């Protein structure tokens, strides 16, 4: 990581580069007009009697000197632009010094007008040359506010030569020149400082914005790369688990099957009743573990897109009643009434009946596990006004906090309340329900309030519901 000093130095180089870029463009453009401006001034001072009718030799000399400077300015600007566009490493210090020398010569040449266009004793001539010096300072501040050094080079050159001209040549406005030149130099130095500071501030703001844009672009690229890696890892994980179904299930099925054989004493008595109790524990633990593995593998298959839906038109009441029969065998369902309330008994749904039955079983298992003792769990089906099929499972348990209603659909997530924690499961049931429902292009959500129970709602789109029944 760069030190603060290195960062400051780098920023200084970037600002200098911006100064040179702006200077090269503006100098190259203005160089075309400088000979015409010099020619116009020379013509005016040589032809207008009130300006002293300066000799043609001096006027032409002035035009030639100005034109030579313009040629040098054009060549320097062109050379800088050529190196910049070629993306060659630029020695900024040398280019900066070259432009300072160029602007010093500019100031000296415009100041030389006091000698080449001078008319002794003509006040208007002398005043016009004094104003030319001041206008030169004003123009450089206006055109080259990007650098105080460039402004200082022009101002110093033109001020010194003009002052020298008024010193060595008699002029009736020498006193005015002695007052105005220092005042103008001081005033324009302040203006130069303000213009320079404003330029540097704008450049730094732009450079900062560019740095932020580059950093943001790099962060986006890194994020996309990480996202791709995460998706690849997730897909690899899902593919691995989906392909491991046989390797994981076969040993468990063997453990469960052999424990049942020994428990039932198919090949003779065990001898000690305690062994039969232990074998029952082994079987129940194996069944529980097999259920967890089945849930994990189902999720993995869905994530790996390896589940093909066996879809057909089926009556929701069929797979719901099967789910209720299965749930009644759950130990937590003892003493809990499971009520089925079909609002549209003749409705049909285009679904994978086995998958939807498992989704309802998972919802019912959650409901009976968290239901209040003695309260019923109700399953309702209905068609919405839009023709969608709804399956609702309602319990009267402790409820779920509002901030957890969406979170509990994540794998291994549990509702964060005391009643739920007393009866925790694996946290895969609702994740599987959402995966099964999404596979049918449907949606599932929970409506709950703490202490008021929970309703789980599955909604299948209208195109999957039959048109034989009408919405209420």
Please render the helix and strand layout as text.
Elements: H1 4-31, H2 34-47, H3 56-85, H4 92-111, H5 113-116, H6 123-143, H7 148-168, H8 174-243, H9 245-263, H10 273-303, E1 312-314, H11 316-328, E2 338-342, E3 349-351, H12 353-370, E4 377-383, E5 389-395, H13 418-421, H14 429-439, E6 443-448, E7 454-460
Parallel strand pairs: 2-4
Antiparallel strand pairs: 1-3, 4-5, 5-7, 6-7
Structure description:
The protein has 472 residues and is of the alpha+beta class. The protein folds into 3 domains: 4-216, no CATH class; 245-303; 312-464, 2-Layer Sandwich (Heat Shock Protein 90), CATH 3.30.565.10. Helix content is 64%, strand content 8%. The chain contains 14 helices and 7 strands. The protein has a 5-stranded mixed beta sheet. A two-stranded antiparallel ribbon has the order 1-3. A hairpin with a 5-residue loop joins strand 4 and strand 5. Helix 2 (34-47) runs antiparallel to helix 3 (56-85), helix 6 runs parallel beside helix 8 (174-243) and helix 12 (353-370) packs antiparallel against helix 14 (429-439).
Order of helices and strands: HHHHHHHHHHEHEEHEEHHEE
Mean pLDDT: 81
Shape annotation: rod-shaped
Q: Biggest sheet, in brief?
A: 5 strands, mixed
Tally of domains: 3
Number of helices: 14
Rounded to the nearest angstrom, the distance between the terminal CA atoms is 69 Å
C-alpha Rg, in Å? 46 Å
> Which structural class do the helices and strands define?
alpha+beta
Beta-strand segment tally? 7
Roughly how much helix do the residues carry, as a percent range? 55-70%
Strands in their spatial order, largest beta sheet:
2-4-5-7-6
Beta-strand residue percentage: 5-15%
Uncertain spans:
416-424
